[in-house]
Amino acid sequence: MPAEYALEIGNLTIPLEPQVIWLMVVAVAGILLANAAMAARNLAIAVGFTVGSGSAVLLIGGGLAATLVVL
User: Fold this and answer.
1) Is the pTM of this model over 0.85?
2) What is the mean pLDDT of the chain?
3) For residue 31, what are the β-bridge partners?
4) Residues 18/5, Cβ–Cβ less than 8 Å
5) Do residues 42 and 32 touch, judged by C-beta distance below 8 A?
6) Contact between 16 and 3 (Cβ < 8 Å)
7) Residues 41, 45, 51: CA angle, nearest 5 degrees
8) Gap between the Cα atoms of 26 and 38, Å rounded
9) Is 5 helix (H, G, I), strand (E, B) or coil?
């Protein structure tokens, strides 16, 4: 393992310690986990809305059918 690490961007060299590298890895992992959680939440909302809308259509349609049968 090299004794020191550095982030090189063009002519700019930024020395990094291993603790900083681990912090960057953990931060990126946390961001990815948060993105996955938000995507799962959005999917759950979309599925719930779709199923709820379908249930409402069936409920209203069933009510109309029952009304027509009674009449």
Assistant:
1) no
2) 80
3) none
4) yes
5) no
6) no
7) 140
8) 18
9) strand
